[in-house]
């Protein structure tokens, strides 16, 4: 964090929008003026102009029962119709919606007319399986067009999707299925990753053995051609059901506050939170930011967001934002380096990508490989670059702009969260002067402040806590099944009084003298590994679930490529001392254990086997000291430790 602040303080570069870019830009200064003049009317106007309503709304915001907001609540719309049918009706049916590229190199171009057809067929199949408005459908798929089709088919019926990232384990999938009581799971036999087929259906089978039993049917896309087990009472092939279903489907309008999806994300406790988003407000802000932050010209742009649909970025900026705007986009199944390290750049060249949205961790791994790889490809179609997921250090920002962007195109650093639903802080390309390393300014209609622990505004250079001071259309509406946790986690940081009802994001931030916002990382026990959120508590509880473990502490240590890396300190049970004689072996076993329990993304970079953990007199583990060790720093102030000599013992064991 200190290194980041130093960077932030040193950073003085500014880039004015080029006059050519500004002249064609979608956004203009007027958006800020309109939002300042009347924030609610501004959003109402966006909702009316960007979306098609079955029944127009007359109320913009109901904030009479904070923190439970209602936006546009007497209006009705169908989210899928907004992403599909209305474009076809407007004569854009032949426009390509998705250029899909499989990892092995197979590809499909799908027009808006074809996508609409496929979604209607999938909606009919789901209806046949008994899925009704309000029911939950779990989606566990690779990055194939059927993932987008499934999400939209569920939305079309007014049902609620819960997409679970394909890298999550059977246990993680089972707990998400159970929490939402999903009645159907949509999956594939397998998908391609790093040149191999990874199985998905077998993980679903295992999850359903562990789950409480809400699932009636599993709908399976054939993709990996891998061997899978089959339960003929429960399982159905996509190509035998969806492919043969009718493509006639009358969509109905749902209330603006009708739930659209649940997406699980890590919090500060061991149990992931099911973040709930609803329809009208979510789609309004996703569509608005897609258009203005990415300067989207749907008639000529080829947009590519590299996020998986298993994350919020994939929801808002692969599915809902681009499709609501009628964009043409690239969807890629695989990893950036398969079968060769130039794979992404080959895709940019092949489809003539104009807008690229990715994460700093990807940019930093490309930096490591060197500029000669992207230089082998024609990247001159690119005209805008975006970044999301973690702070982008100025060096990576500059490299991205120069090596990938050819030196003069805008780079937008977008800050937001699963909970915020859509982009909250970002420059507007063509309008804002760009400053590498800073996410810069709230988007029009969003109110951000930086407060200290007592809720007083932090003036000037000092850092504080990032809060959103006014409700926004795409805000989360709750945590599935847990309204108390929703209130406590996000809204009661500064007290429960109505005038203190501010959204606490969990991020540290500072504002520089130009008013630009710099994000300083999480202020809670949430780690950010390759732009993915992981909870220290969740990994600790996985470690202590292993029969060898007595106690465990997990920290996020800074890592050159992944931003942070998971580092664990584990005390083994005395009773295991005879069985587990080799610490290296124990550490390997525990790393493997976390990967199977939670998923490969949670696998610790290191597991240190130690005899003690540093604790305060009240028994709290001092993670700060462990972080010092994990980052190879001099260990900080140890005076509050119950036993001040303990860090020397631990340091010796770690080295
Ligand atoms: C969209 C997404 C949210 C957390 C957030 C913050 C970090 C995201 C960032 C950023 C600095 C940015 N984060 N974007 N930090 N600059 N541009 O990533 O959602 O997975 O919920 O993570 O990611 O710490 O609180 P999510």
UniProtKB/TrEMBL annotation:
Pfam families: ACAS_N (PF16177), AMP-binding (PF00501), AMP-binding_C (PF13193). It comes from the Bacteria. Residues 538-620 form the AMP-binding enzyme C-terminal domain. Signal peptide: none annotated. Residues 91-480 form the AMP-dependent synthetase/ligase domain. Gene3D superfamilies: 3.30.300.30, N-terminal domain of ligase-like. NCBIfam families: Ac_CoA_lig_AcsA, PRK00174.1. Belongs to the ATP-dependent AMP-binding enzyme family. This is Acetyl-coenzyme A synthetase. It comes from Agromyces marinus.
């Amino acid at each position: 964090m200190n290194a980041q602040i130093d960077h932030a303080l040193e950073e003085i570069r500014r880039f004015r929008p080029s006059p050519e870019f500004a002249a064609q830009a979608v956004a203009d200064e007027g958006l800020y003026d309109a939002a300042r003049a009347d924030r609610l009317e501004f959003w109402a106007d966006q909702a009316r102009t960007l979306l098609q309503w079955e029944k127009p709304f007359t109320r913009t915001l109901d904030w009479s029962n904070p923190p439970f907001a209602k936006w546009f609540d007497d209006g009705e719309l169908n989210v899928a119709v907004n992403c599909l049918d209305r474009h076809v009706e407007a004569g854009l049916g032949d426009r390509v919606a998705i250029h899909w590229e499989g990892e092995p190199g197979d590809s499909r171009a799908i027009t808006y007319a074809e996508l609409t057809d496929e979604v209607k067929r999938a909606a009919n199949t789901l209806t046949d399986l008994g899925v009704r408005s309000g029911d939950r459908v779990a989606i566990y798929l690779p990055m194939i067009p059927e993932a987008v089709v499934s999400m939209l088919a569920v939305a079309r019926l007014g049902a609620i999707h819960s997409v679970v990232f394909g890298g999550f384990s059977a246990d993680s999938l089972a707990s998400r299925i159970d929490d939402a009581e999903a009645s159907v799971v949509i999956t594939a036999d397998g998908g391609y990753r790093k040149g191999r087929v990874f199985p998905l259906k077998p993980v679903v089978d295992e999850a359903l053995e562990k789950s409480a039993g809400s699932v009636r049917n599993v709908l399976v896309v054939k993709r990996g051609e891998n061997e899978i087990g089959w339960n003929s009472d429960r399982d159905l092939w996509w190509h035998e059901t969806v492919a043969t279903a009718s493509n006639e489907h009358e969509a109905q309008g749902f209330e603006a506050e009708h739930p659209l999806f649940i997406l699980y994300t890590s919090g500060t406790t061991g149990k992931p939170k099911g973040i709930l988003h609803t329809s009208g407000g979510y789609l309004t802000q996703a569509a608005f930011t897609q258009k203005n932050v990415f300067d989207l010209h749907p008639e000529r742009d080829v947009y590519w967001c590299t996020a998986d649909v298993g994350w919020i970025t994939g929801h808002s900026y692969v599915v809902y934002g681009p499709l609501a705007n009628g964009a043409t986009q690239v969807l890629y199944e695989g990893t950036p380096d398969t079968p060769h390290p130039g794979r992404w750049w080959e895709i940019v060249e092949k489809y003539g990508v104009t807008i690229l949205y990715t994460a700093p961790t990807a940019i930093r791994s490309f930096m490591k490989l060197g500029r000669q790889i992207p230089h082998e490809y024609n990247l001159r179609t690119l005209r805008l670059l975006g970044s999301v997921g973690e702070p982008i250090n100025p060096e990576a920002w500059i490299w991205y702009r120069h090596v990938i962007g050819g030196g003069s195109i805008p780079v937008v650093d977008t800050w937001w969260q699963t909970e915020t639903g859509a982009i909250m802080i970002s420059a507007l390309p063509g309008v804002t002067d760009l400053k590498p390393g800073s996410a810069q300014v709230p988007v029009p209609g969003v109110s951000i402040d930086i407060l200290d622990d007592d809720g007083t505004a932090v003036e000037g250079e000092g850092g504080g806590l990032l809060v959103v001071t006014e409700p926004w259309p795409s805000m989360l509406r709750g945590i599935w099944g847990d309204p108390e946790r929703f209130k406590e986690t996000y809204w009661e940081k500064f007290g429960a009084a109505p005038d203190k009802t501010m959204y606490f994001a969990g991020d540290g931030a500072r504002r520089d003298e130009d008013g630009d916002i710099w994000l300083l990382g999480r202020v809670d026990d949430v780690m950010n590994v390759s732009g993915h959120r992981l909870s220290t508590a969740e990994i600790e509880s996985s470690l202590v679930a292993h029969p060898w473990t007595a106690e465990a502490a997990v920290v996020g240590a800074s890592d050159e490529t992944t931003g942070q890396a998971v580092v664990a300190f584990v005390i083994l049970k005395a009773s295991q001392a005879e069985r587990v004689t080799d610490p290296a072996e124990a550490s390997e076993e525990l790393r493997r254990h976390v990967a199977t329990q939670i998923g490969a993304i949670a696998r610790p970079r290191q597991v240190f086997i130690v005899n003690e953990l540093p604790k305060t007199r009240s028994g709290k583990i001092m993670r700060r000291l462990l972080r010092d060790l994990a980052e190879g720093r001099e260990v900080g102030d140890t005076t509050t430790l119950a036993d001040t000599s303990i860090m020397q013992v631990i340091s010796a064991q770690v080295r």
